[in-house]
Amino acid sequence: MVLVSAVRDYINRMLQDISGMKVLILDSSTVSIVNSDFVSQLGNDVFCLVSIVSVVYSQSDLLQKEVFLVELVDSISKSREPMSHLKAVYFLRPTSENIQQMRRQLASPRFGEYHLFFSNMLKDTQLHILADSDEHEAVQQVQEFYADFVAIDPFHFTLNIPANHMYMLPAVVDPSGLQQFCDRVIDGIAAIFLALKRRPVIRYQRTSDIAKRVAQEAAKLMYQQESGLFDFRRTEISPLLLIIDRRDDPVTPLLNQWTYQAMVHELIGIQDNKVDLRNIGKISKDQQEVVLSSEQDAFFKANMYENFGDIGLNIKRMVDEFQLVAKSNQSIQTIEDMAKFVDNYPEYRKMHGNVSKHVTLVTEMSKIVEERKLMLVSQTEQELACNGGQGAAFEAVTNLLNNENVSDIDRLRLVMLYALRYEKESPVQLMQLFNKLASRSPKYKPGLVQFLLKQAGVDKRTGDLYGNRDLLNIARNMARGLKGVENVYTQHQPLVFQTMESIVKGRVRDVDYPFIGNHFQQARPQEAVIFVVGGTTYEESRSVALQNAANSGIRFILGGSAILNSKRFLKDLEEAQRIARTSTNLV
């Protein structure tokens, strides 16, 4: 069972057994799971379902299930209009706020029937509140459907935690904030394994306090507090849950990306499989927000992990095919030509609706690449991430810091990548780069780079980030250097790739990734969930998808507290630094 189909199955079961016209009521979290767009608001604060651009469910899917209205639970409280002809299907997180909302709404019911579904485990006290509130006996059922995560792709999920920076702060700085962060992570991990109907053995990254805390609390929930719920009495080998810290690989979220899905997120941004294009100039209304989903878009599914150059060629091939149909002699040689052609032939958009979207995305990204000189910048980034040679690296970074066309954020990332690689080897030259950055890009103080080193420097990391600790990794890198690489812009492999290799080969060291409790792996697992506290990247989800396609005998699932690009990673870093500076408790 993969994640997208697991969530879709839950929603199918919610809706198909309730006959008649329905209203689907969501909260701010579950709306990401079903991912509805509310683009029309009526005067009485009732939201009209106009367009569903769903992570797991489309508009037509909902209409087939007789769902004619979608509302947010907050808006229900504001409206008094009776709708007794509708049956209300609630899908909410079991938070105390949502339980109180339900208590108020059940006191004066607006709908004919109430069917309550919660995305995670309900406490007994919450059930009692719901029962006591249902004086009108409107509630037909209360069920737990474990979909407390956003299934981005079949093997990739996120929890979309807004305060993602919390993982970088010591517990003494904001104990309640860190507890809320941990609680949300535990809820998400629990829902994944309840959806998979498995109880895992749990390992964690030894050098990370937050990974250890999450692992211990997850084990306590699964093996003590809710032991019966997680006891599926299955005899095969238990899956592995490996909890790691984003700071063990700070390089991956700092790099520019050159494969399609990762590049769109880095340069434009993806939120719950949607891309907001309203800020990129003249664009047709139907293209202002587009969906990038491997479940709904065949072209994207086929090309999401392809290199940028290949994407352009593949789009051109589809445009060429239509030209034959349209009998157009217009010459198409560039991305700009493709964009003009699509604009001139509206029927093309009908026949290949998705392609006009991809032409728009590739056109915009090409513009950004040229404006920010990203091919030049990225070549040095890849050298810093993958190859040695401190002297040449210092010269390359210095030249780019002096280049007027290089943006402030790219200068910052270059200095960070250099500092992570050479913090011990060249402190004098590192200080020169700090000074150069401060003079060229004064909005970024060197303190942010130093804060990154304090968070994720060599003394803090467990994994062999640069392949220069472990003899096997050194040999692999030498072999790759001798053979050369297929593409200088995509030679980097995230640390999670090495981690998966170690799991497949049974080489995960107990001293680096200890087990929790006395639950050990008896044999190689057939399924492994790698959870990254601090967030995942699309480069890492690509590695997981390719690893699964290789049929190694282990199915990997990747999850995290957020989905990062360099902008989000730096924002989290800046926020953690700001809080750390103002905290008197920080040692």
UniProtKB/TrEMBL annotation:
Signal peptide annotation: none
Q: What Gene3D superfamilies would the database entry show?
A: 1.25.40.60, 3.40.50.1910, 3.40.50.2060, Syntaxin Binding Protein 1, Chain A, domain 2 (3.90.830.10)
Tell me a GO biological process for this protein: vesicle-mediated transport
Q: Which SUPFAM superfamilies match?
A: Sec1/munc18-like (SM) proteins
Known InterPro entries for this protein? Sec-1-like_dom1, Sec-1-like_dom3a, Sec1-like, Sec1-like_dom2, Sec1-like_sf
**Which family does the UniProt entry place this protein in?**
Belongs to the STXBP/unc-18/SEC1 family.
Which protein is depicted? Vacuolar protein sorting 45
Which species is this UniProt entry from?
A: Rhododendron griersonianum
